[in-house]
Specification:
The chain is an alpha+beta fold. The protein is 60% helix and 15% strand. Helix 7 packs across helix 8. This is YibE/F family protein.
Length: 392
Amino acid sequence: MLSLKLLHDGAKRRYYAPVAVCLLLILLLALLPTGFEGALNYQGNDRCAARVVAVDDSAVVDTGLVRSGEQACTLELLGGAFKGQTATGYNMLNGSLEQDKIFAVGDKALVVISYQGDTILSINMIDHYRLNWELVLALCFAALLIFFAGKTGIRAIASFALTVLMIWKLLIPLYLKGHNPILIGLAATLVLTVLIIALVYGFDRRCAAAVSGAGLGVLVTCVLGILFTNAFRIHGAVMAYSESLLYSGFPDLDLTSIFMASIFLGSSGAVMDLSVDICSAVNEVVDKRPDISRRDAVRSGMNVGRAAMGTMTTTLLLAYSGGFVALLMVFMAQGTPIWNILNYKYVASEIIHTVVGSFGLVTVAPFTALTSGMLLAGRTHTSDSGKPEAAG
């Protein structure tokens, strides 16, 4: 009886330990400085929301599809040191539909106020104010997740927060400081893989099996990403805003290595998802058939993996192609031959993202089936309740 209680307590500790580790890391990362706080272009200015009470479009040059010039707006400042005051702000137009914005009376804008003492020198209208609706969207998502998943939903929110902080507080600053993007990306991805899967299972054999399979899949994606990026002669400048990054004072960054790292980082979420699915299926089989052999458990995992790959191989295709619908429409509207399309470097870069990422998904299935079968079957194991179950 005492041994059963000890087993149960041990399983409970292993299940809740990842939560403590995750919360501790979230706290540490939230307090960790990035090292670039002093490099803010907006340092020394006041930022707040402002309501547009009047607009003057007399200096706006309308050329049909695009507009240039500047839009003068009378603003009621809604926060900051000048809250309640009315001042004029300027919205500079560059003739780009992608970047330009037009304000109307009643809109809320995010503004940056340059001032000296109590005098406003100028107001730059950054963009429409969206922070309130972004907060509403995030809270609705969190509430829905908790409503349907309960404690698991809370763990999912914790893993989401940890991932955001890991990328923003560690990955991006280390990239900017010139550290090897592939090694840093691999380390961050593998740490996140361990913690995210541990939040699902706890620190037990299921976690070890799923992490092993997912880690091997990520490594395959990493190696293939490096090989085919070089084979396709893709330069990292194909990434959006990469040239702006170089001209922002970081001309020595290895953009190609950053691009390579983005391949396995972008596919790691789907890899983790598939590894957990297969591991959970194998664990369920072993729970129902404690006498199952390792060979049969691996075979069961393979069968689940084959079924899952039927849909997972198109997951990344839809995820990446969804952001390039306009580009594909341009190609079709201009009658661009398919051979030309496939040879454009920005198309080839997305082919690498999609196909190499899918390689990771395909390989993670046998890897996870093998690790799950070897670790979960053919030995005495303990269920989640702490009850020992003998394997034949």
